[in-house]
Amino acid sequence: MNRFFTILLLILLIGATFSCKNKKTETEYKQAAQVAQESGQFETAIENYKLLIENYPDSSSAASSMFMLGFINANLTQNLIEGEKYYKAFIEKYPDHELVKDAKVELENLGKDPSEWSIFKNLQDSLATQH
User: Fold this and answer.
1) pTM assigned to the model
2) Cβ proximity of 106 and 87 under 8 Å
């Protein structure tokens, strides 16, 4: 019986050691996501941003990671439903974040060509009236 518990404890310790080795730091997740995004590997970027939020929900990078999930989905993979979901979650969870205004603009113009965005149309109208 004592041998059984010793073996069980050993198995649990080995499992804990391997699971801790697989967990990256907040910075490693963020860097992996950024590198993947820059190289066009959007699904890998999405996965790393999700893991960062899951493993470090109260970290300084969690908010910007959620915004990036909205951005990548809405603009780079054209998954508008997921983009909308993450932008709304970002605005709800981080209402005072500096990127909330950007998220609202993205939501307002979801699926539109950037030349159709109201922010650009207002700028064009303003420039046209100055001349």
Assistant:
1) 0.75
2) yes
CA pair distance 79, 31, nearest whole angstrom: 23
Q: How far is CA 63 from CA 49, 54, 90, 100, 104, in A?
A: 10, 12, 7, 10, 15
The domain in which residue 43 lies consists of 23-130
Reported as a single tens digit per residue, the pLDDT across 61-114 is 999 999 999 999 999 999 999 999 999 999 999 999 999 999 999 999 998 887
Number of domains in the chain: 1
Q: Are 21 and 9 in contact (CB under 8 A)?
A: no
Residue 16, domain member (yes or no): no
- Residue percentage of the chain with pLDDT more than 70: 73
Q: Is residue 98 a part of any domain in this protein?
A: yes
Burial-class residue 86 by CB neighbours within 10 Å (0-12, 13-18, 19+). buried
CA distance 86 to 90: 6
